[in-house]
Specification:
350 residues; 10 strands; globular
């Protein structure tokens, strides 16, 4: 893509808003790359498995100028047990896929099957590195705790899981602090957007850890033209190309009220949630990529997921899609089922 444009959606007077502000929209590839001229850390929240967002990431790592400014990519979908194998894999070494795929398949916080977009991204970094000199090759830093699922056999082993599951943000922050900042490197951080989103201007745990280390990050959250519930669409987004990177401070996007669903504290504005908005397109065009049932049922991946769910949950959720379900599913639905409740962990004991 590699294009840069500046669009001014001026005079967007619509009912309920009462004023018009410009909406400068950068191409996200060029925009994110330029951010690293100022910031050591750029945090991009992720809609898990989102096809359109991971298309941006895949293109970003191959874009001219990215590897010249960025050293590391810190991944939530990356079990740190596999760091050595991933280092060799993305460097282009001859590493069998079954030696490295545990990085994205055996995370602590995701109990169901991971989206295929994660395997695709690791492969995209490997491909990009083949064209780079050794001293500019990108490194994927694994940001999920190094839990060994082979040590989890029965419900009694939930105590072992409890050593890792509640501390995922702390571990991720420590990885950024010691493997990126302490080595004077720059990094793109990718994690579920709820981990990066500010609450009425108050940073979350990971951003607080960075600020304590005297590093100010730049925070980007993704989304569509939904500004509240499923049917609450802001048609001003129709004036913008997708994808776009929109600075919150200089546009009407930052003035949108934060509906604050399910989060404690006062509601604020979108401009208090992040520094920029990664607009991925209208609600009905944003999708997530999933595996086919045939790729899960009776396979090593599916059997591994089934085993973990049976151990963690008294009533394990059904993770298999219908046989005829397409791999591309809507990212948003009017009645999204609630996520399964986290497994009950043992009570503290002496």
């Amino acid at each position: 893509m590699n294009r840069l444009f500046l669009l001014f959606a001026v005079s967007l007077m619509s009912s309920g808003h009462g004023h018009a502000l410009a909406a400068p929209a950068d191409d996200p590839i060029t925009g994110i790359i330029k951010l690293f001229d100022t910031y050591r850390i750029v945090m991009v929240g992720e809609i898990h498995g989102c096809t359109q967002e991971w298309n941006v990431f895949d293109e970003l790592v191959a874009a001219p100028g990215f590897a010249e400014r960025v050293n590391d990519i810190v991944m939530e979908f990356g079990n740190a047990r596999y760091q050595d194998a991933v280092d060799r894999y993305v460097a282009g070494d001859n590493v069998a896929i079954d030696q490295v795929q545990g990085a994205w398949q055996e995370t602590v916080g995701a109990f169901g099957p991971p989206s295929p977009v994660y395997e695709g991204f690791y492969a995209a970094v490997r491909t990009a590195n083949r064209k780079l000199p050794k001293n500019q090759q990108l490194r994927i830093v694994l940001g999920d705790p190094p839990m060994d699922w082979s040590q989890v056999h029965t419900a009694k082993d939930r105590e072992y899981v409890g050593l890792f599951l509640p501390f995922r943000d702390e571990f991720y922050a420590s990885v950024v602090r010691y493997r990126v900042l302490a080595k004077r490197r720059r990094a793109l951080l990718i994690m579920g957007e709820g981990h990066f989103r500010r609450n009425a201007g108050r940073p979350g745990l990971i951003e607080r850890e960075l600020l304590t280390a005297f590093v100010e990050p730049y925070v980007i959250i993704p989304g569509s033209n939904m500004v509240g519930g499923y049917d609450d669409l802001d048609r001003r987004f129709d004036q913008l190309p997708a994808p776009s990177l929109i600075d919150m401070k200089s546009s009407w996007v930052g003035t949108i009220p934060d509906s604050n669903p399910g989060r404690p504290g006062p509601a604020g504005t979108w401009g208090q949630m992040a520094d920029a908005y990664l607009y991925l397109g209208p609600r009905d065009t944003v999708t997530v990529t999933e595996y086919r049932r045939s790729e899960l049922e009776g396979t090593a991946l599916g059997n591994g997921v089934q085993r973990r769910l049976a151990i963690l949950f008294d009533k394990p959720p059904d993770f298999l899609p219908p046989a005829d379900a397409p791999t591309e599913q809507p990212a948003f639905s009017p009645k999204s089922p609630p996520p399964p409740r986290l497994p009950d962990l043992p009570r503290p004991r002496p």
